[in-house]
Design brief:
483 residues, alpha/beta, 18 strands, binds iron/sulfur cluster
Length: 483
């Protein structure tokens, strides 16, 4: 497989291998909105006592994926806007288990595959599956053309696959077998780092003998772990059907649901970034208060919390008081508050940049202590071409930016803005700090909306045409009968 572009961003604050278990909280704040989900079909009443693993709410737009209660407690629906709050939490002593008899909505006599797919959805494991090309949740009843499983995460700072695989290799292999049971002849591509580590050798040892698993080794350069890039590299076309994609935690969740019928209630989340005292991975349930994590892992006063990785994450705001079900990392950065006089002419001995224009270029490899500061934003494009050099999609971000800036959406379509995988590298390397990634994501949304509107318009017109034809035929028939 050949890869284009890419660049490894070296920043201070990479979490190590250890996984810390967070202390039991008193309250959980479960966000109703995440990157892909909008949980809106409430299944409990305000003040209702719920058990661990109960469904609190589902997302009707995403195959009724549930938001499960991570602990036993009292559900509050109106305490904090955009959240279900779980109070009076009690520590569990037994994991909730679901049997086939607890799934009465499954048709009697449904095959093992239908039961297992439904189990994946109702036990919260299906939410770990995404489609390679559009990133959305695929239809659990659908047939994929292939499955891609990635054990690597290259964006700083999100939970890494090697950390999650430690001591869980058997479960991982069993999870792969469960996934294979959904397939007929389609392959499972297992993406591994192209290096000889003890762990990768052990993984290879475990999957040896499973002919349906094809190992793909990729160089450790961001964003070679991106599913869209991998699917294109493997020659899988979006027109040939969905491509199910999972990271390590998704395979482990599938094993959990299908081997022991347990829901996935905890997440391994990385806590990293320059403001983290000790960058670590933590084990915490969904809804865990973010402020408790921040208090525990930083001593800083002005800290910006990013939900997700450094390049694609979003600032965590009041919309997310607790860890959401899709959270894989929290990045803690120094909030830049002081204005530095003539900051833009600093020689930049401590600034890491793709452009070799700072004095830092004279230093050997070092990690930058990044802050939220940008020195003179909204500068025009200087045609340096860095964005094109790093772009893994082989498009010309600077050209697309100019088209979109001038509202030339059709030209942007011709320039294949649809190929952008939103990795954020172009925005990172851009010396003018242009928000290219966001601009392209908005353009893709607009194009998709316009396509959907055109499709609905075409359906309406067709319906109108058929109604008109039927009316004309009826009138002709009546005229013939009268004659
Ligand atoms: S244009 Fe898209 S794919 Fe290319 S570097 Fe930018 S965000 Fe990544
Ligand atoms: S990196 Fe920024 S300044 Fe350089 S060509 Fe791309 S958009 Fe223009």
């Amino acid at each position: 497989m050949k890869f284009r572009g890419g660049y490894n961003v070296l920043l201070q604050g990479r979490p190590g291998h250890s996984v810390n278990i967070m202390p039991e909280p008193k309250v959980l704040y479960l966000p109703l909105r995440t990157r892909r989900f909008n949980f809106s079909d409430i299944c409990v009443e305000d003040g209702q006592q719920v058990n661990m693993g109960d469904t609190l709410v589902t997302d009707p737009g995403n195959y009724s994926i549930p938001l499960l209660a991570p602990r036993t407690g009292k559900a509050r629906l109106n305490a904090v806007e955009g959240h279900i709050v779980l109070e009076e939490i009690t520590k569990y002593d037994k994991q909730p288990k679901t049997s086939h008899a607890d799934l009465p909505h499954i048709e009697r006599g449904a095959g093992a595959s239908a039961v297992n797919r439904d189990k994946m959805v109702s036990l919260g494991s299906w939410e770990f599956v995404s489609d390679a090309y559009d990133g959305k949740v695929p239809d659990p009843k659908g047939k994929p053309q292939a499955v891609i499983v990635s054990t690597i995460s290259l964006e700083p700072f999100v939970a890494r696959g090697d950390v999650q695989l430690q001591n869980r290799l058997l479960k991982f292999t069993r999870g792969l077998e469960h996934l294979q049971s959904f397939l007929e002849y389609q392959p499972i591509y297992l993406v591994m780092p192209k290096l000889k580590s003890t762990l990768s050798l052990r993984v290879k040892e475990h999957v040896r003998g499973h002919a349906w698993v094809k190992i793909i080794e990729v160089p450790l350069k961001y964003p070679n772990d991106n599913f869209g890039i991998l699917a294109r590299g493997l020659g899988l076309k979006s027109s040939d059907g969905p491509i199910w994609c999972l990271k390590t935690e998704g395979v482990l969740a599938a094993d959990r649901a299908l081997t022991i019928s347990h829901p996935s209630l905890v997440r391994i989340v990385s806590v990293g970034g320059p403001e983290t005292k000790t960058p670590v991975h933590i084990k915490a349930m969904t809804g865990y208060p973010i402020n408790l994590i921040v208090e525990k892992y930083t001593a800083g006063k002005n800290v910006r919390v990013i939900d997700g990785g450094m390049l694609t994450g979003k600032t965590a705001d009041d919309q997310g008081l607790g860890i959401n079900s899709e959270c894989r990392g929290l990045t803690l950065m120094t909030e830049h508050t002081e204005r530095e006089f003539l900051g833009f002419v600093r020689p930049g001995f401590d600034r890491k940049s793709y452009a070799p224009c700072f004095l830092s270029a004279l230093r050997v490899k070092f990690k930058e202590r990044l802050t939220t500061a940008i020195f003179g934003e909204e500068r025009p494009c200087v045609d340096c071409n860095f964005c094109e050099e790093v772009c893994p999609a082989g498009i010309m971000p600077h050209l697309l930016h100019k088209y979109l800036y001038a509202d030339l959406i059709e030209e942007a379509c011709d320039g294949r803005v649809d190929l952008c995988v939103k990795c954020g590298l172009c925005s990172y390397v851009c010396p003018s700090k242009i928000e290219l990634r966001e601009q392209f994501a908005m353009a893709q949304d607009q194009i998709e909306r316009e396509k959907e509107e055109a499709r609905l318009d075409a359906i309406k017109q067709e319906k109108r045409r058929l109604a008109e034809e039927a009316r004309r035929e009826k009138a002709e028939q009546e005229a013939q009968e009268n004659a």
